[in-house]
Amino acid sequence: MTGQRVFWALVRHDMKERKQRGKYNLRIWRWVYLAIIVAVAIAVTTYLVLRRPGFDGRFVWFYTFAIPFVCAGMGTGLVAQEFRNGTAGWWLTLPYPRGRLLVSKFVACIVRALIIMVGLDALFCLLYLYTVLLQGQFTASGLADFLLTGARLNLVVLGILPFTGSVGVTYGMLRYSTLRPLVPLGWGLFGILWWFLFSNDQQFIFVHPELGGGLVAVSPWLLLPMAVGWVLAAFLLRLATRIMEKHLTL
Amino acid sequence: MDERQVGALRFQLDLSQPIYEQIVEQMSRAILRGDIGLGEKIPSVRELAQGLRVTPNTVMHAYQEMERQGLTETRRGQGTFITSSRQRVEAFRQQEAHRVVTEFLAKMRSLGFTEAEIIEQLRSRRQEEEMQ
Amino acid sequence: MTDIAVACKQVSKRYGAKTALDHLDITIPRGHVVGVLGPNGAGKSTFFRMLAGLVQPDAGVVEVLGQRPGWRANENIAYLPDRARWYPDHTTEQAFQWAERFLPAFDRAVAERLASLMQLDLTLQAGGMSRGQEARLMLILCVARRVPLIILDEPFSGIDVVSREQIVDALMEHICDGDKTVLISTHEIHEVEALFDSVIFLGDGRLQLAGEADALRRQYGSMREIVKRLHLGGEQQ
Asked: Are residues C53 and C40 in contact, defined by beta-carbon separation less than 8 angstroms?
């Protein structure tokens, strides 16, 4: 098999939800929770729409800011589950470059985060339609405004995902290496970097509460910290590869 | 001591002794006793190794030893067979008898028995067995 | 290809204050079934992990099949890690698909024949398997590969007698298939010692004794007795 085909097969393998041993009903519970969330969301929005005249549905899009963290968590989980499930020995002796094994997990956690985001996007769009129909105020321009807001924030998150995904994967690798004592230092460093790159969002993301043209405007300058994040992602993945080659604890 | 059966052959393997010697010894006894007939085919190295759960190299070693003693012969493409020559088996039988007697005599002598005493022992033993 | 399957020259490895391997010198010729025996902590697993490229030596030189250990060499090595488990969501069938995709020279037909020989259901999920069934699955994943070197780290630990016998039978099939080098470490010596062409005894990260199995039997007795004697000798010191 060629390297590329092996790589995508690895990604597909990593994409699959892998329950931990002894936790068999995860899939069922996920649907149960999803149903509960949908029910609560419908109840809350119905209440807001009926009781708060100034309710602006576009604000739901700020949920997207949680996605990068979900992505990091999944990156860590993908590495950690190999060790927790006792499959690390198989994974680490696969006859492929170490970097390919890690990048596969990196890509898998990003794709999984994107799938979650797209799913939630669809859900919130349906919820939006429900609210405007409830209010009897559906307009094409209102819908465009709502979608534009979502698209912009989705794009922002897309740009941030590589950084947080690589942080997640690297952290997972670090936890199972002899360099584990560096974990607190790593978190400190991550905090500083995050603050430096993405927490000054008022400079890049502007909120315009008035209707029309989208709730948020994004400055093109946001590309700069994003690009720095991508470079850092490449660096972190190299670092994780290095840890994998030299510093594993088994 | 592990007992293992391969086809008509029964083996008892003692893991504290060299295994190839035990295979040679037990197979040649089976031949001398007539458990395997002259000219009969014996299991392949693979079959015997799998049946006994021993490494095929050991079985191969044993088969080479038996062939060297003239007890077996390999026919190309057909497998390994017990020799069809009665003379050769008889020669081997005599050789084994000679070996056993030599050992027996050496032991008796080391216990201080003279030749006459040894013959006397054998004679009285035969009488005992006849009585039973 | 060289005639040497594994060569270690003055290999040492420490974990903190603990010495795992201490100036180890080992040469293993190709085509042998080799038992690697010794008490817990003797360095058997570290030795195997080093051959699989999971652990780097602090000092010394390791070669497997004429190569330095690492992912490239692993193409020709089937390695069963110690205390390994399988992906719990995979069925036997999916595990075989996985192996076909990722493990070079994996022979699906051989794997399926072994599975039926060992009475392993193709639709059974690893998460629902007994330890014995899971061990059989993982052994098949190693043995069904047409590779020159197989390394099995404790393939029998925690497994019922029937599974053990089935694993030995599957191993026999593999060994009989020709020029294969197999390294096995185990505490269940009695089950497999007749499979060994030669044996290596490790203790405290050092080579204590090595030789052809039948020659060792003539001199010292069974492998189990030798381990006992070496181990007790070590404690008395």
From this structure: no
